[in-house]
Amino acid sequence: xxxxxxxxxxxxxxxxxxxxxxxxxxxxxxxxxxxxxxxxxxxxxxxxxxxxxxxxxxxxxxxxxxxxxxxxxxxxxxxxxxxxxxxxxxxxxxxxxxxxxxxxxxxxxxxxxxxxxxxxxxxxxxxxxxxxxxxxxxxxxxxxxxxxxxxxxxxxxxxxxxxxxxxxxxxxxxxxxxxxxxxxxxxxxxxxxxxxxxxxxxxxxxxxxxxxxxxxxxxxxxxxxxxxxxxxxxxxxxxxxxxxxxxxxxxxxxxxxxxxxxxxxxxxxxxxxxxxxxxxxxxxxxxxxxxxxxxxxxxxxxxxxxxxxxxxxxxxxxxxxxxxxxxxxxxxxxxxxxxxxxxxxxxxxxxxxxxxxxxxxxxxxxxxxxxxxxxxxxxxxxxxxxxxxxxxxxxxxxxxxxxxxxxxxxxxxxxxxxxxxxxxxxxxxxxxxxxxxxxxxxxxxxxxxxxxxxxxxxxxxxxxxxxxxxxxxxxxxxxxxxxxxxxxxxxxxxxxxx
Length: 498
Ligand code: NAD
Hints:
alpha/beta, 7-stranded mixed beta sheet, 16 helices
């Protein structure tokens, strides 16, 4: 069986240590294995990244931009190869894989402007014959640790801004779908990226803990579940690193009485069930304002769910592929059971779905739960599956309170025709990314992505301007060239600018 290795210093490296099976979620078969990097392997990658740093940091930003341009072209040319790997190991439908890759490529496009993004500020004559400027300097060797659900997009969110800004990187993708980032690293080399600038180590906790504690790592970008994000943030900071760690989510959509319910139901289908609900921005709670709205919404969603196609991601006619692992599918089924036991009504039941020819795949049907209450486990916790909970409230104020009281604050949206209500909502809701009649308000590459509350730890967001801030540090230089042979006289008072 193929053992997927690492990409270190511009070449594929086999590993002789521990391995883990990689499954095709549509068939349930272990088709490959992935090497789990030892501490020594990760340290080797860090050493190569450190050796590459001096030359890379001094490479003109314009030259780095040219490599980004070339990488963008190569990614465009290899969309089919990359998406085939994503679908094989993650399970999502090919179209959906192409969507995630495109959002990652947009980050590469944004970073093609890195010479402009890194421009500092200059002030002349801040004192007699004194000029001052600030500049953004790369940090050194930085690390990225990424989740299974976006095996191309999220690594690109982190790695591309980091290296474009002049850092060198050790990236650890999810061990559940490790292949596509190795291909992307290979394409980066073809684009002209020097060896050692982008290294990919596959692995688990041993690799992560090495990155968290090694003094050569200056900063860590993490995306994953909240419990691990909190661990990464606390451990990384305790080890003196700059850390940005994004975590889990429970994203609510408010459906107001004046909303176009047909449009809202259609939008919620993709937002709740796309990628089998395994998106940190998936809408997992529909908050219906009034029973009439709830009844109409549940009826329209039930009608649409009857035609939802579930099957292998290799067939673009399917709307939804399988979940990532058998264990995760069992966990999602457990949430549906628990909601039912706690009094929710199962309006559409995805339990027991079997896909002909793929009986051992990790499939589950889309599920709609009505009359969900905030005390229920299925409401409080992130399910990360194709399960939409409908919570019924009496007013917009009650809907907003529900959202504000939830521990997560990644994304949210409101469906309404009332501009004043929408404006009030976006201004006051305690959530980082807000949509108005837009169910998945994932910021474009030239803005930044960041949730609030326990969906994110640390300052700055991912990609966009925040990533330039995160992966550089400011230095301010004050300069005087004495003119006309004037000698310094000793000054004991604090220098002012007169
Ligand atoms: P995860 O937290 O299990 O894993 C993320 C990374 O952490 C992986 O690389 C994994 O190898 C590593 N890891 C796992 N356990 C570890 C441990 N004990 N010690 C050290 N490292 C460990 O997350 P996942 O299941 O791969 O991804 C799904 C989660 O990611 C969901 O909660 C989802 O909401 C979240 N997510 C968030 C965003 C966001 O932008 N906020 C985006 C995508 C996914």
